Structures are given as C-alpha cells and as structure tokens.
Amino acid sequence: MMDRTDTLTMPFDADGATLVVDDQQAGSTLTTVDLRPAVHDYCSDNPTAPECLVADLAVTTLTTSAPPLGLVGTAVTVTLATTVANLGPDTPVDASGSITATGDSGLTVTPGSYAARWPALATGSPQDRTDTVQATCTKPGTSAFSAMADITPDAAKVIDPVASNNQRTSTLTLTCAIPVQLNVRPGETKNQVNVNSGVLPMAILSTGAEYGLPLPFDATTIDAGTLRFGTRDALLTSSGGAPEAHGRIHPEDSYEPDDKTKDGDLDAVVHARSDRLGLTPATTELCVRGLTTSGVPFFGCDHVVPR
Ligand SMILES: [Ca+2]
Ligand SMILES: [Ca+2]
Ligand SMILES: [Ca+2]
Ligand SMILES: [Ca+2]
User: Are 244 and 278 members of one domain?
Assistant: First the structure.
C-alpha cells in the first residue's frame, strides 16, 4: 500500500466557505475543507486585492444601567445598550458578535450571553441594540457587574485593520439591601394611616431567616439617621422618603407581624410623620430603607390602609 499526495488547484473564490470532495463512484463524501482560514490569510496578506474588503468595525459604546437599590434574593433588570459602527473604508458589511454579562461572587446573572447580529453595517449608519439581563444579589452591600460586547466581520474576505476597538467593557456597582420585616402600628392589624397628620409608630423587627426573609437581621444595629419611610417606588428608585421623626430608634420587644405575639428579642420601634410619607388613598404598602451602623443596607414593607 502506498500513500499518495494529490494537489487540487481551483480558482480563488473570496466568498468560498467550504470545499466538499466527493467520491462520485462510491457516492460518498471523502472530506470537507473549511476555506475561510485560507481566504482570511490571503486577504490579510493582500488587503488591497480586488477580491478582499477592508472595514474597521468598532463597538463605539456600551453602557450598563440598573435601579439604585436591589434586594438580596430578588432579581433586578440590568440594561445593556450597545452601539457598533463601520468606520470603513468598505461598506456595508455583515457583522456579528456577542454581548456577555457577568457578576462577582455576590451576584448571579441570567442569561450570561447574547449572540448579536449586525447585518449590512454601513459607514455613517451605526447600529444600536439593547439587551436586558436579570441580576440577583446573594449578599447585602455592593457587588460588581461587568458587561462585554465584541464585533467581528462575518465574511472571511473582510479584513478589520484595527483590532483594539472590536471589544468594549462596561462595569456597574449594584447595591443590594437585606429584606427586613416592618410592622406598621405594632399591636394593630388594620394599619390605618391618616395621610394628612400625626406621627405613625412602626417596628422594624429583629428576625432570623423567617417570614420568607433570606437572611437574619438585628434591628438594634440600625443607624437611625439613615432611615427613610415611603412607598416602594420612592425608596427603591430615588432618594426620597420621610426621615425618622425623632432621629433615633427605640429598642423594644415589639409585636411580630401577627400583631399579637412578642418573641423576647429587641426590635427597633420607630416613627415618621404621616403627611411626609407620600401616601395616597390608593397606596397599599409602606416601606422603610436604611443602613446599619456598619453600613449594610436594608429594606422592608408592610401593608397600610390610608384614610
Ligand atoms: Ca476594528
Ligand atoms: Ca400592624
Ligand atoms: Ca425576632
Ligand atoms: Ca421581638
């Protein structure tokens, strides 16, 4: 038996993708050759050849945005905005790439990656796309989120002469609060609030991982000066809300959410002026956010009946 080497010569086709060698007598495929690396090598060496194209593709912007405050165990939506451009000279060219999002050890991010397509990307006509991912904190405080976008020409005959602008990253710091249990009007289940006047008593409870809360919380560690009371939207998306009316917490064994039992450990009884809470007759929920003395954010809510 002898090995033999044959050479198959064919015209150069810059759009060729695969070469299939068939054994016609046997009716079978002998081999399939990917021509793209050969085309790419040829055009890299001869970018001015008439069969080849030159287009500097670039990821020109990548921005990431998220709500100012998330909750441990609850996903927030992070928005990734990407703009890509063809800086020429040849135009238009089809391009593709990926948008990838990752978090540090305190974050889970889904989905982690999107395949991106930018068809007929032309000079002077950048293309935008927006992707969203869900990020969930597994610990309170700050976590690092990072996104990356890249672009590459689809055709092997298109040479991108500048590699440094083919990829861009964007980072974001997410802040997540420990979910806590608030009890509006401890000892009363109706939780009626006069929206026009009065000082509203509430208890922020010291809890274990109970009442559906993912982590334990010691309410006696609250930094009273950081407390804000208001609607969920006002507290999670802006820095609004009413402060603690006396600027201090009252450590006291207050009522559990059933408004009947006391469990023996100290909670934080707090107060806020009702007319500063931003409640309307349609509001069904009053919330609190703040920091512990060691700077850990927390957030919790209870139902209310404004009148
Ligand atoms: Ca480029
Ligand atoms: Ca109550
Ligand atoms: Ca407790
Ligand atoms: Ca207690």
Answer: yes
